C-alpha cells in the first residue's frame, strides 16, 4: 500500500481543479487501498503516516489540510488485508 501511496499522492496533488465553474473548485479525492500495510523491503504505513507526510508538509510546501491518511486495518505480507483511506485535495 505504501508504495502505491507514494505513486498516487503526487497525482492527486497535481490534479487540476474542476472546470466550468466560475470559481475553480478543488474537490476532495478519496482513495481506499487494500493490501499489505507492513511488508518486508517496503515502507511501513507508520513511516508513511508519521515521517513521509509531515516531511512533505514541512519541507516541500504541501498544505497540511490537503491530505488525510486513515488506517482502518493493518495487513501483513503475504496475506495482506490491510485497508487504508487517503483523502486529499489538489494543492
- Could you estimate the helical fraction of the residues in percent? 25-40%
Extended strand count = 3
Chain-averaged pLDDT: 85
Structural class: alpha+beta
Largest sheet: 3 strands, antiparallel
* Beta-strand content bin: 15-25%
- Counting copies of identical and different chains, the oligomeric state is single chain
Low-confidence stretches: none
What is the number of helical segments per DSSP (H or I, 4+ residues)?
2
Task: Write down the Rg.
Answer: 14 Å
Strand order of the largest sheet: 1-3-2
Query: What overall geometry do the principal axes of the alpha carbons give?
Result: globular
What is the straight-line distance between the termini? 22 Å
The SSE string, one letter per element, is HEHEE
What are the SSEs and their pairings?
Layout: H1 2-13, E1 29-35, H2 45-60, E2 67-73, E3 82-88
Antiparallel strand pairs: 1-3, 2-3
Describe, in plain words, how this protein is organized in 3D:
It is built from two helices and three strands; from the N terminus they run αβαββ. The protein is an alpha+beta fold and 91 residues long. Strands 1-3-2 form a three-stranded antiparallel beta sheet, with helices on one face. The longest helix is centred in the middle third of the chain and has 16 residues.
Key structural traits:
alpha+beta
Explain briefly what this protein structure is.
By secondary structure, the protein is of the alpha+beta class. It has helices at 2-13, 45-60; strands at 29-35, 67-73, 82-88. It has a 3-stranded antiparallel β-sheet with strand order 1-3-2, covered by helices on one side.
Amino acid at each position: 500500500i505504501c508504495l502505491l501511496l507514494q505513486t498516487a499522492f503526487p497525482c492527486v496533488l497535481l490534479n487540476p481543479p474542476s472546470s466550468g465553474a466560475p470559481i475553480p473548485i478543488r474537490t476532495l479525492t478519496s482513495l481506499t487501498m487494500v493490501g499489505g500495510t507492513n511488508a518486508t523491503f517496503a515502507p511501513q504505513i507508520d513511516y508513511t503516516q508519521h515521517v513521509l507526510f509531515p516531511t512533505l508538509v514541512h519541507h516541500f510546501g504541501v498544505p497540511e489540510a490537503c491530505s488525510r491518511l486513515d488506517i482502518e486495518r493493518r495487513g501483513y505480507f503475504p496475506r495482506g488485508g490491510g485497508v487504508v483511506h487517503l483523502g486529499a485535495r489538489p494543492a
